[in-house]
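User: Just a sanity check before I run the rest of the batch. Below are the structure tokens for the first item. I only need the designed sequence back.
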């Protein structure tokens, strides 16, 4: 229910401090109009707040709602009272829908302290702000915050008793904490249609409305939004435990379902409680612990079934779900240890390959030590490399190398790279081709962000740049069309040599024609040289840009 739009006092057309006599008279008037099919309007209808109904049923319900003093006090908290001339003037402006003027009047009466003279201004102004904050089906957070804050100031002031006497005729309001809790309940109910909606209010903003209230009220408000998600998570954990124990073979799917079905509730708790909250840690640890247990029991159950299928992949995924819950303390350590164990099992063949490489490297090292002291006849021992290849080919399959490169396990990747390069440095040239091909497969499957790949690509680009620069240097010193130029120069020499058969003009003309041909070929060669150098320099720039992008990504 919108406690302002459908407030019993509004339906009855009265202020919150109406006397019992006024109430009964008003009810009689409204019912009399209703019997003849008419609807009576009053000064306190305040149409700018929104529509409402005033039928026989609504009148009876409104009357029943405020029969008890504590109910009357609660509903009057969300309505207006008339206690002094300022209230009278402000109400006259509200009748004319001039809410800004009413706000201005009540604001002028607010002081540093609430007194018997201005407590009604705090109440009326706060009710007006709250009412105006939800007009047009959207929340105006600033007005809402101002209204809640003013209401809190009144509830937790010495004037609460004065307000209680004004409304109920006696001072029943002796526990502001209990009244605040009821107030919180009604505000939450009032804001439900707007909660986490577009143009509405988020859960965190709603909780923040009560930041100026006592700590106990802040905790009470927060608990309103955490009890349900905590209860949901705990119930789902209990159901999962039952299913897991009954059918451990399906524990993998149970763990996955538990994680997915609690993600939203856990995220809500994090938003509300904050990452450092003890209650959040406790429920997250319980959740992570059960998800991990599903992973463990799924693996143990299926791993015992003669290896029909490999449960390790699913178990690892479920264990990662437990990790993403962000457990703390011992549960966190347990989850990380389980993931590490499963990952080591997942990459068992990869670790084995590195182990075989290292064993062969040790054999080379031991042999080098032995050969430092040759025997009497100077005989040096050597390793049978054909046996090395026979030993390594089964364990260094392309699939294993690709798996290592894509594992995202830095220790495994770095150890394999180091071991493979050490083997290449020891192996003879004739047998190095096998290892170089394996290294190429390894490098090609590494992510571009890996340092080994970066260094390899950088070194490769550096070599290409060096080759291009050498080519540029050779191009600059190269004489284009040298044979053609040589022929033309020989022809000029011939023309100059056989002068007796030519006249001077003919000779000079022929020399000039030959020189023009030479100049044209030189110009053509220079142009081609310039173009080729430009293309090579452009390739150098591209390669340098590639290196820059590699080292700065």
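Assistant: Here's the designed sequence for the first item:
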């Amino acid at each position: 229910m919108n406690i302002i739009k459908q407030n019993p006092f509004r339906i009855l057309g009265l202020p919150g401090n109406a006397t019992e006599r006024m109430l009964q008279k008003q009810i009689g008037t409204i019912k009399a109009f209703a019997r003849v099919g008419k609807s009576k309007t009053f000064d306190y209808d305040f149409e700018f707040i929104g529509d409402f109904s005033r039928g026989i049923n609504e009148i009876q319900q409104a009357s029943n709602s405020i029969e008890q003093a504590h109910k009357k006090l609660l509903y009057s908290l969300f309505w207006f009272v008339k206690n002094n001339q300022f209230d009278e003037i402000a109400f006259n402006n509200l009748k004319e829908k001039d809410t800004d003027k009413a706000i201005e009047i009540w604001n002028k009466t607010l002081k540093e302290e609430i007194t018997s003279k201005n407590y009604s201004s705090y109440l009326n102004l706060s009710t007006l702000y709250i009412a105006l904050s939800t007009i047009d089906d959207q929340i105006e957070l600033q007005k809402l915050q101002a209204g809640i804050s003013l209401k809190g100031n009144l509830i937790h002031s010495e004037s609460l008793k004065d307000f209680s006497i004004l409304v109920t005729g006696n001072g029943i309001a002796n526990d502001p904490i209990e009244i605040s809790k009821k107030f919180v309940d009604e505000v939450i109910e009032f804001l439900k249609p707007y909660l986490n909606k577009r143009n509405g209010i988020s859960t965190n903003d709603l909780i923040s409305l009560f930041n100026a209230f006592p700590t106990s009220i802040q905790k009470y408000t927060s608990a309103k939004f955490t009890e349900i998600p905590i209860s949901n998570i705990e119930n789902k954990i209990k159901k999962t435990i039952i299913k897991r124990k009954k059918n451990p073979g399906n524990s993998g799917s149970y763990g996955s379902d538990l994680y997915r079905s609690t993600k939203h509730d856990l995220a809500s708790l994090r938003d509300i409680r904050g990452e450092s909250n003890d209650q959040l840690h406790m429920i997250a640890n319980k959740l992570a612990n059960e998800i991990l247990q599903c992973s463990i029991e799924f693996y143990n159950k299926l791993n015992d079934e003669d290896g029909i299928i490999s449960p390790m992949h699913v178990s690892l995924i479920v264990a990662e779900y437990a990790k993403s819950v962000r457990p703390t303390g011992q549960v966190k350590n347990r989850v990380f240890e389980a993931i590490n164990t499963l990952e080591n099992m997942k990459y068992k063949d990869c670790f084995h390959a590195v182990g075989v490489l290292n064993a062969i490297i040790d054999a080379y090292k031991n042999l080098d030590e032995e050969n430092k002291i040759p025997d009497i006849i100077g005989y040096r021992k050597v390793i049978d490399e054909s046996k090395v290849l026979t030993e390594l080919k089964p364990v260094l399959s392309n699939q294993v190398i690709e798996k290592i490169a894509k594992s995202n396990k830095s220790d495994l990747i770095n150890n394999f790279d180091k071991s493979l390069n050490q083997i290449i440095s020891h192996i003879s040239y004739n047998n190095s081709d096998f290892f170089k091909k394996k290294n190429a497969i390894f490098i090609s499957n590494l992510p571009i962000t890996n340092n080994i790949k970066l260094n390899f690509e950088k070194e490769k680009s550096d070599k290409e740049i060096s080759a291009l620069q050498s080519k540029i240097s050779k191009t600059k010193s190269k004489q284009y069309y040298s044979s053609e130029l040589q022929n033309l120069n020989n022809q000029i020499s011939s023309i100059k040599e056989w002068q007796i058969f030519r006249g001077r003009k003919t000779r000079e003309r022929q020399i000039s024609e030959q020189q023009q041909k030479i100049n044209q070929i030189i110009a053509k060669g220079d142009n081609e040289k310039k173009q080729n150098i430009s293309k090579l320099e452009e390739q150098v720039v591209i390669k340098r840009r590639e290196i820059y992008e590699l080292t700065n990504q």
